[in-house]
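Field: COMPLEX_INPUT
Field: COMPONENT_COUNT = two
Field: RESIDUE_TOTAL = 228
Field: MODE = joint
Values follow.
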Amino acid sequence: DAKTTQPNSMESNEEEPVHLPCNHSTISGTDYIHWYRQLPSQGPEYVIHGLTSNVNNRMASLAIAEDRKSSTLILHRATLRDAAVYYCILRRQGAQKLVFGQGTRLTINP
Amino acid sequence: EAGVAQSPRYKIIEKRQSVAFWCNPISGHATLYWYQQILGQGPKLLIQFQNNGVVDDSQLPKDRFSAERLKGVDSTLKIQPAKLEDSAVYLCASSFPLGQVLAKNIQYFGAGTRLSVL
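Field: COMPLEX_OUTPUT
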C-alpha cells in the first residue's frame, strides 16, 4: 500500500480557512486520494475523495497537485465542530481497503 | 437513514476472559468491515466481509479473534481469551460493494465499542 505523510497536528482559528497537507510521493496512477475525519468519541466519517482533478463538496475542497504527489484538504471556513483527526488515505482502484495512518489532529481556536 | 449500529458502547473485562461485539450495518450494504483502533493510532482493518463471505482477514489474530456474518447482515466479533494489548476501540463499518453505482467508494462507520482489558 502506498504511504501518505501528514503533519501530526495543526491549529487554526474559527471562521478562517484551513489547509491540511498530505504527501504521497509513491502514489500510483490508479490510487484514489480519500480523506476521512474522526471527531472525538466517534468513528471516522468520509469527507471527500478524488483521482486527478480538484473536487468540491459541501464539506470541503480537495486540491490535487499536477504530479499527484501531494494533495491539500481545504476547509473554507472552520468551525469548532471541525476539530478532529483528519486522515489522508490512498485507495487502489478496484479495492475497498482503507489503510489509515496517524492523521493530523486539527485544533480550532474560538 | 439509520447509521451503522454497534453495541455495547463500552466493555470492561479482565484478561483471559472472552468478549463479543455486535454490529448492524446500514441497510443494503453488502460489505462489512471490523477495525481495531488503539489509542493514538489510526484504525487498522481486522476483517472484511462481502455478504457472508470473508474477503480479507490477513490482519486478524486468528488464535484469539473470530468474526462471523452468518446471514449477510449483522456481524459479531469475538475475542477469546482477551489480552491486555487488546484494549482498543473496535469499529464496524459498511459500504455498498465496489462496482455498484451507489458505492461512491465510501465507508460508513459506527461509533465503536471501547474495550478495556484489565
